[in-house]
């Protein structure tokens, strides 16, 4: 049985962030080795400012109340927890170049890599997930 | 009934995945065989805690619910699969039923409460020294736990204390298919 979980985060909304970080922290808490490859809009999720103001899909703003009521942790809190549990963050170099971003724009402790960096990790991971 | 746990974790009001994350962290402070009680209001935690324990190799004992608060019980298992059964004689679980002797269940109180053999006496391993006087040296005693590991240890302690008619029940409650008495 594989002890790795590989996740691609390619979307940058609040819902996307919860899908990514909930699965990632749950997997890490279950003693899995977890890596998330952040690419395109997915980079939002670990962007120092961006992750504090992730948007919800149009027409779903009323869920904000539900999030508060369910006492769902804030995304920055989940990011910190994921890192504390050893989840590896890999930011996509190519997207960063396109968007003019540098390592300093992101939370500390990330790695920057290309597609092969992620593929190398994911080659024997199960499950591999894309959000 | 109230149940004795070694550690308690309050995860009330927290939503997925926090109860699991907190449980994982709390578990690090327990030693092998200790019981963690997790209080949670996240309804999904019932299935999640059981699945988590299964994944990482701890023993999920059960869950109770009281006033919308779930109480999950997990026993920490470092190496539950490595069982050295040194004590002789042993007795097969199926042979114990209907005998005149005493079935002595040495699992933790909470494990006993979630299901035991009718008529069994509960003395958790850790309480043995203090409660050994409750046992009759002339009676046949069938010591049982979950897999045969703790019962092996207790059987040896009993013989060292002058008990002559002691048997270690193998394989233990994991193989019990008969009626389970619950006191919770």
TrEMBL record, chain A:
<dbReference type="Pfam" id="PF13686">
    <property type="entry name" value="DrsE_2"/>
</dbReference>
<protein>
    <submittedName>
        <fullName>Peroxiredoxin family protein</fullName>
    </submittedName>
</protein>
<dbReference type="InterPro" id="IPR032836">
    <property type="entry name" value="DsrE2-like"/>
</dbReference>
<dbReference type="InterPro" id="IPR027396">
    <property type="entry name" value="DsrEFH-like"/>
</dbReference>
């Amino acid at each position: 049985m594989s002890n790795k979980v590989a996740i691609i985060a390619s979307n940058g909304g609040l819902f996307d962030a919860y899908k990514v970080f909930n699965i990632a922290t749950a997997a890490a808490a279950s003693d899995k080795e977890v890596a998330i490859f952040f690419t395109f809009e997915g980079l939002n999720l670990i962007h120092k400012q961006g992750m504090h103001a992730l948007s919800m899909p149009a027409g779903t703003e009323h869920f904000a109340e539900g999030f508060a009521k369910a006492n769902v942790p804030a995304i920055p809190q989940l990011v910190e927890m994921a890192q504390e549990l050893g989840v590896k963050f890999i930011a996509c170099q190519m997207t960063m170049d396109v968007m003019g971003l540098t390592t300093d724009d992101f939370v500390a402790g990330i790695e920057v890599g290309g597609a092969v960096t992620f593929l190398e990790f994911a080659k024997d991971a199960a499950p591999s997930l894309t959000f | 009934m109230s149940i004795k746990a070694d550690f308690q974790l309050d995860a009330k009001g927290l939503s997925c995945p926090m109860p699991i994350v907190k449980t994982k962290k709390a578990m690090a402070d327990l030693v092998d065989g200790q019981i963690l009680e997790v209080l949670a209001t996240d309804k999904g935690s019932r299935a999640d805690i059981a699945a988590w324990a299964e994944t990482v190799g701890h023993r999920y004992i059960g869950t109770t619910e009281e006033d919308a608060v779930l109480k999950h019980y997990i026993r920490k298992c470092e190496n539950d699969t490595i069982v050295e059964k040194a004590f002789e004689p042993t007795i097969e679980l199926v042979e114990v039923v209907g005998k005149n002797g005493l079935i002595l269940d040495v699992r933790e109180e909470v494990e006993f409460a979630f299901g035991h053999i009718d008529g069994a006496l509960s003395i958790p391993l850790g309480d043995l020294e203090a409660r050994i006087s409750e046992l009759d040296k002339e009676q046949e005693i069938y010591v049982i736990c979950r897999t045969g590991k703790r019962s092996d240890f207790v059987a040896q302690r009993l013989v060292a204390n002058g008990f002559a008619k002691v048997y270690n029940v193998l394989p233990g409650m994991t193989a019990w298919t008969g009626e389970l008495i619950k006191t919770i």
